[in-house]
């Protein structure tokens, strides 16, 4: 069986990445989301093991020491990391894996050579719209919003490091583009839209 593909998706906070993924993933077979470990506190509605694996700093640092992470980064003062074993297990089973990670983590994977990945950057149409979205979700303090906007300016500088760019201005359009990228990459690896290998043996 063909191995699965690893898709890295990065975006500034508030660009709509989570909304896009929630919209497309239920309709795509053999596609899973890699749940990261983080030291930050859960937000309202988030569940441990679903949104993130919420751990304390001591546990995270010990996991890092044992080389459990494919990548890890410190973002907004908190640690985030991707489990190496979980990702490679899915890929071996022919399941595509979505990594929702920041530009630091993407660069680590890109430079490590541990895994080949398709990288996709999701951007807001402009900074003003991003600020509107951050304020509209009413989850962060003023200080945090300003920090996220400042970080967004820095993250946008990394766009050229990504293979694909999606401008999330219209949700439906952005979702179609993201789906198309996943299906195109499957076709490039001689796999069906379902994620299964193309049955070329019937032509022999």
What does this structure look like?
The chain has 204 residues and is of the alpha/beta class. The chain has a single domain (6-189), classed as P-loop containing nucleotide triphosphate hydrolases (Rossmann fold). The chain has helices at 17-24, 57-65, 84-92, 103-112, 127-136, 142-156, 171-188; strands at residues 6-10, 31-33, 37-38, 53-54, 69-75, 78-83, 96-100, 117-123, 164-167. The strands form two sheets. Strands 2-7-1-8-9 form a five-stranded parallel sheet, with helices on both faces. A four-stranded mixed sheet has the order 4-3-6-5. Helix 1 crosses helix 7 (171-188) and helix 5 runs antiparallel to helix 6 (142-156). The longest helix is centred in the C-terminal third of the chain and has 18 residues, at 171-188. The two termini are 18 Å apart. The mean pLDDT is 90.
Percentage of residues assigned to helices:
25-40%
The number of strands is: 9
Architecture (CATH level 2) name: 3-Layer(aba) Sandwich
- Straight-line distance between termini: 18 Å
Q: What is the residue-averaged pLDDT?
A: 90
- Major sheet size, sense and barrel closure: 5 strands, parallel
CATH C-level category: Alpha Beta
Proportion of β residues? Answer: 15-25%
Number of helices: 7
If you compute it from the alpha carbons, what radius of gyration comes out, rounded to the nearest whole angstrom? 17 Å
Biggest sheet: strand arrangement: 2-7-1-8-9
| Total individual domains | 1
Q: What structural category do the secondary elements indicate?
A: alpha/beta
Shape: globular
Low-confidence parts: none
User: CATH superfamily assignment?
Assistant: P-loop containing nucleotide triphosphate hydrolases
In N-to-C order, the SSE pattern is EHEEEHEEHEHEHHEH
* CATH-derived topology: Rossmann fold
């Amino acid at each position: 069986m063909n191995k699965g593909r690893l898709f890295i998706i990065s975006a500034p906070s508030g660009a709509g990445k989570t909304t896009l993924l929630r919209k497309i993933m239920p309709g795509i077979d053999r596609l899973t989301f890699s749940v990261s470990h983080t030291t930050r506190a859960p937000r309202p509605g988030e569940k441990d093991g679903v949104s993130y694996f919420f751990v304390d700093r001591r546990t995270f640092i010990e996991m890092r020491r044992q080389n459990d992470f494919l990548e890890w980064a410190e973002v907004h003062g908190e640690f985030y990391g991707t489990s190496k074993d979980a990702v490679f297990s899915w890929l071996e089973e022919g399941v595509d894996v979505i990594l929702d990670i920041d530009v630091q983590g993407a660069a680590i994977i890109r430079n490590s050579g541990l895994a080949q990945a398709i990288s996709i950057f999701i951007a807001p149409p402009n900074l003003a719209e991003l600020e509107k979205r951050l304020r509209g979700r009413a989850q962060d303090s003023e200080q945090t919003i300003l920090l996220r906007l400042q970080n967004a300016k820095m993250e946008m500088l990394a766009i050229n490091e990504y293979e694909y760019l999606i401008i999330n201005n219209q949700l439906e359009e952005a979702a179609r583009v993201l789906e198309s990228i996943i299906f195109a990459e499957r076709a490039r690896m001689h796999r069906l839209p379902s994620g299964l290998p193309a049955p070329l043996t019937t032509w022999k």
